[in-house]
Each structure stands twice: as C-alpha cells, then as structure tokens.
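hi!! sorry for the late reply, been swamped w classes. u asked for the two structures so here they r. pasted raw, havent cleaned anything up. first the sequence of the first protein and right below it the tokens
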Amino acid sequence: MSRIQEFEAIVRPGGTQAQPAPAARTPAPRPARDRLPALDGLRFAAAMSVVLFHFMGQTRWSMIDIWGRPYQETFPRAHQYFAFGRLGVDLFFLISGFVICMSAWGRTPREFFISRVTRLYPMYWVAIVVSAAVIYLTDSPFGHPNPRLLFANLTMMQRPLGVDNLDPVYWTLWPELCFYLTFSVVVWRGLSYRRVVVFCGLWTVAAVIAPGAGIPLLTLVANPTSAPYFIAGMAFYLMYRYRSTPLLWGIVAMSWLLALHFLLAPVGGSNNWDTWSPWRGWLILAVTVFFALVAAIALGWTRWIRWRLLTTAGTLTFPLYLLHDVTGMTFAHYYGDRMDPLLLVAVSVAALVALSYLVHRYAERPLALAMRRSLNTAAFGLQPPAPRR
C-alpha cells in the first residue's frame, strides 16, 4: 500500500479524520531476554542461604548432628542470622514463577515438556547417585534407608507415593513439579497475558480453599503454603514482559498477604513454631524484601547488571542445592570435631561450589543435551509405531 493509500485509509471523505481504533487491553510486550543476570545472582544467593542454614542455622531438633553439640553453641552469634536461611526456599519459589513463565512463553507444549524434563531430571538423577553413594557407602548421619525408598525417589513422585525423601532437600521438588504440570495446561492452550492472569486467579482460589476443604488431593496439587510465591512470580514476569498494572499489583499484594498468612500461621503453615520461633517482624521483613527484590527486576531497575559471573552462578544453583545437604553434611560430620567450625564451613562451601561446577559441566549438561536430542526426535503421538516385518 502506497503512502497516499495509507493516508486515505485513515481519513474519511470530506477531510474528516477517522476515529483511531480502540487500544488493546493487553500492553505491548517488551523484547524478551534469555537470561537476567540479576535474577541468576538472586537465585544463587537463595541457594547459598539454604546451604549456610544447614551448616550454621539449624536448631536442636535437627536429626543431623555434625558438631557434637547444639548449633547455637557452635555458632553463638551467627546462628540466629543464618537460621533465616531456611526462607531461601520461598525465594526460590518466587523466582521460579518468574522464570518458568518466561521460559515457557512462545513454546509449544512439546517444547515446554522437553525443556522442563531436561532441566529437572538429569541433575536430579545425578544428585541421587551421588547422595546414595554417600549414604550407603559411608558412615553417613543420614542412616541406611530401605532401597525401596531409592527407587521411589528416582521417579520424583515420592511425596504422593507416601515415601520419604532420600535427601531432605528434595521436598521442594514436588511443589515445583506440580507447578509445571498445572501450568502445562495454560501452555497447551497457548500462553497469553489473559490466560496467565486467569491461571493466577484460579490457583489463588484453590490455595485459599484447600486447607479447609478437607480434600487431600486438592491440597497435594495446590500446595497452599508455596503457591503464593509461584503466583507472585508469574505476575512479576507479566510486569516485566508488558508493564505494571493495578491488576498485576493486586495479584502480587494478595500473594504477599497469603504468603505471610501461611508463614505466620500457628499450625499447618510453612513454619514449625515448636522448632523455630523468631520475632514475627523479622519474618514479615524477610518476605517483603524477597518480593521487593523480584519487583525491582520486573520493573527493569536491574537492567544495568550485566555481569557474566552471575549467569555462571545461576547455572550452579540447582546442583549446589541438590548436592550440599547429604554430601556436605556428611563431610562436616567426619571433620566437625577436628577443625575450627568456621574454617570447616568455609572449606565445605568452597568444595561444594567446585563440585557443583564439575557436576554441571561434565555430568548434568552432557546428560541433558543427550536427553534433549533424544526427546526432540521422539514421537509423542498416541498412534502405534509401524509393525515389524
């Protein structure tokens, strides 16, 4: 169409300009980016907070005794601060809502399935092999569980199967997996601003009614205590991809309130007050800071951060999280009474970061690439293959 024709198309006969078309309700998306270094750095910080919690912040109820005396006596000053490291898991969930929504955008259900399977299972299986070797071949403080537990854990379905986790940190994988499974319905329908908002609303309702509904399946799938973080993360991604709106801020505010409700609940929430009862104000502040940090990324305030080291740290987060507990705590168990505690923690954490890099570089990545190539060429249809001749 020529410029004259374009001009005539928007101007009515007689020189009266036509009324402009109504603006779309959904704001225009920003250019997508594959990696956000600030988000990678925040994810690594969350993993490190959990690691340091297990080394320095646990309480007397812990079944894993690595120091031969209470943690509070081993780290009398630092313990009260590192005890908050357990909240790093909540930050994980918040970031996960953002990242999964970002990585799924524009992908087909097949592509989404392959990306999630190759992201979770290769490193998870490697971690199980490493942890099982430590547990069954050494005098580990984690005992020697029935091998049946090992087989159930390899499926990542141990929670619905009613089986204990081989490594206590694996409990976070079920909420993640439920998020992927339910969100895949939206991916199947095609991701859009409206559908993600509706999904956030439906999940919020499910998380609210699940605790009092008396329906175990609903509670198992909705994960009420974790859901607010995933939901807020998705809303933050919509802010990042489009722009902030009162509707999205409303979703975030509701998620923040529900997150605090479940965290501060006297029973049945995300915290066991019999084992850890800090001042409530610090808990409110910690969760609020988590939301504020992700909000800063969503609003583009961290676009100036381009450090490649943060991206590298982001790739080590999953290996570090999965490997640190059984491996690190067993190492500390052997040397807890032979070295200065702070020196042992420093050596252990440095060794775990190095191990995470080696495992990621030489085990997780090659296995994930091989699995991705295999799944990309696999037939996902329900039609039977050609019969043998």
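now the second protein. again sequence first, tokens right under
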Amino acid sequence: MISKNKKFLIVGLGLLGGSYALGLKKEGYTVYGLARRQETIDYALENGFIDKGQTECDEFITEADVVIFGLYPTKMIEWVKEYKHLFKNKALITDVSGVKTNIVSVIQDELKDMDVEFISCHPMAGRETSGIEYANTEMFKNANFIITPTESNTKEAIDFCHDLAYTLHFNHIAILTCEEHDYMIAFLSQLCHMIAVSLMNTHDNSHLVEYTGDSFRDLTRIACINENMWTELFLLNKDILLDETNQFIDSISHFRDALQNEDTEEMKRLFVQSTKRRKMFNTNDKRKR
C-alpha cells in the first residue's frame, strides 16, 4: 500500500499520463501535473485530474516523492538531463514508455550519482486516441502492467511499482528484463501496428466504407495512429522489429505459396494451428473478466 503522504508528479498529461493522474486522484493521492500547453493544465484542473499544475519546471519537482513520465522516450531523456538537479532526494522515478533497451540504461546512467532511483514500467493500456480529453481509468482494469527492473533497482522500487499497478487497478502484473520486454512488444504491439498500417495503405480503400465488416474493422482499429510517437518507438526498437517483420513476411509468403499451389492440406493445417493458438488468448480474456 502506497502511503497517502506520497506526492506524485506526472510529467506529460496525455492519454496515459492523464489517466494515471485521474486514477491516483480517485485513490486520494496528491497529484501535480506538468504539461507543455496551458490548455492541458486547465483541463486537468477543471476536471479534477490534478491538485496543481503548470507549464514551468520548478517547485513541483522538488516537492514530488514520485515522478511519473508520460513523455515520448527521447523527450524523457532530454527532460531528465535538463532538470535532474531538481529531483527531491530519495525520489522514485518511473515511466510509461513502450521501449526499454535504448532508454532505461541511458537514464539510469544519467542519475547514477544522485540519491534518486529510476525504474521503468509499461502499462499495456494504450488506445488509438491521444490527449488528456480521452484519459480514463477503465482501460486499466483488464490491462497488463509490466515492470522492467535492472540490476540497479532495489526491491523497494520493484515493490512500489507493484503497489502502483494495484492502486490503478491493473489486471495482471509481470516482470521482464528490458530485452525481454522489447522482444515481446515488437511482436505483440509494434508488428501489429505495422500490419494494420500496411493493410490500410495497400490501396485506396475509402470506397469500401459502406461494405466494411467486423473483420476489417478489428484488424485496422490501431491503424489510427500517432505518427510521431510510433515512428520514434519503431526506430528505438528497430533491430528487433525488423527481425519480427521478416518472420511475418516469411509466414505470409508461405501462406501465399500454399494458396497459389492450391495446397488445401497445408492451408487447413495453418487454419487449425492459428485457431489452436488463438484459443489460448481467448482463455486469458475470460480470466480477465
């Protein structure tokens, strides 16, 4: 249980940062917010997301016991380098970033001579929308929460991240290394977004809107994408994502060849195999309910 005396600072009040702020406020915590735009701060204050907020970085940082970054990964690194001298002693710092390998070690090295601790996390609860106006806590309830500690992290920090996930009502909490996380995310998230984007860009399909069924809608929901964030995430995880992409190309090429050769037995085998594998996810979905 996280002490109610802890003061939280959310840096970046977008979809996830705003949802964290709202969730922590609902649980009775003091929450401060930093954002680039005053309009975002005004919205957060008017709707009860934060206790105080501003666009300038000063006293909020020195008061915060916990700092949570809702920034793009490269922006987070830049922010830490510029404002790390303002962190409160013993402060715990965490994030919501979708990549880890090329981020966590850089920040931990930047903070190694300070009396603060950075431990990285990834709430698997994003949406195709962005901005604080879409923030909500309902998306946490069936979502997974991943903690990616390194050898530099303490047990206390890992326990705190567990408590944070429970406080925000995440469904399942897992611990992975940064490398394990990035391999997992390349397949389960980044490759899926690449496929959805590629499907929408295969040809101009706008004339098919009136005939669209659930299959196309389900496959392309995540093609509504933040081009700035996802370009950054893809590039930061480039080598792993390229490997997963090549494996997917091999898989779809194999299916194409089976179709071209009218190899009905192989096509049926692939259908049976995919059905069997997908049922494992169906079982997990039921557990979440």
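hope this helps!! also noticed smth abt the second:
DSSP finds eleven helices and nine strands in the chain.
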